[in-house]
Design a protein that fits this description.
234 residues; Glutaredoxin; four-stranded mixed beta sheet; 9 helices
């Protein structure tokens, strides 16, 4: 990482509605701090088993139908974000693990130079892998698709002109899941409790949940100010 940049580990689950909402904050962060922040996107397994998380966890609150209403209402509070009227009804992903592994496979190929990481200008400040994660979120929340399905994942990769065969190979040989395990292990070390979570200042600061952009910005500005003051003593 560039020593002049602040490192932020950003944890999310692709099935998490508040991580979908957080994309609005990430867009602002990239627009305002792209030259000052190194954003490291990682996954945390909040929806590893949706039957347990929602089917059982929401049983006393109305079950799957109530959860689907909750998701739709949460998104409708943000006019910038599209939402499918049948989200979490017609297609309910059983787990986020597969979609996470799919994105990590693309990240492995990006590190090897087989996916172009330098497409930020055409992807609203995102890298190709970040864009893949975003399009998977859109497929779920905007289009109502089951993004746990490999065919859905591969179609999105092909639409982006990503090497779908290379991604599939990393899923088949287990390397994608090894990369995903690193994320989950780091989340445990960082004591991440849920999605989304921003980990700043080498783990000393955590911003968890539906946190407003101004709070994120204030924390970054403070870290940048501290760095300038330390540099002034040299």
């Amino acid at each position: 990482m560039d020593d002049r940049k602040i490192s932020i580990r950003y944890y999310s689950d692709l099935l998490c509605v508040w991580a979908y909402v957080a994309e609005l904050r990430l867009e602002e962060l990239r627009a305002n701090f792209l030259d000052h922040v190194e954003l490291e996107q990682r996954f945390v397994p909040v929806f590893g088993n949706t039957d347990k998380k929602i089917g059982q966890g929401w049983a006393k609150r109305g079950g799957w139908e109530a959860y689907a209403d909750h998701v739709r209402q949460a998104i409708e509070s943000f006019a910038q974000l599209p939402v499918h009227p049948e989200v979490w009804r017609a297609q309910a992903p059983p787990s986020s693990h597969g979609a996470h592994a799919f994105v990590k496979a693309a990240a492995v190929l990006e590190r090897k130079g087989e996916i172009d990481a330098a497409r930020r200008d055409e992807l609203s400040g995102r890298t190709s892998v970040e864009e893949l994660a975003w399009r998977l979120r859109l497929a779920l929340f905007r289009d109502g698709l089951d993004i746990a399905r490999l065919d859905v994942q591969l179609n999105i990769a092909r639409e982006m002109d990503l090497p779908a065969d290379g991604i599939r190979e990393l899923l088949e040989n287990g390397r994608a899941f090894a990369a995903l395990a690193e994320d989950y292990e780091q989340a445990t070390r960082d004591q991440v409790k849920g999605s989304p979570t921003f980990v700043l200042n080498e783990g000393r600061q955590k911003l968890y949940g539906n946190v407003g952009y101004r709070i994120i910005e204030a924390n970054i500005q403070e870290l940048l100010r501290d760095r300038r003051e330390i540099a002034s003593w040299c």
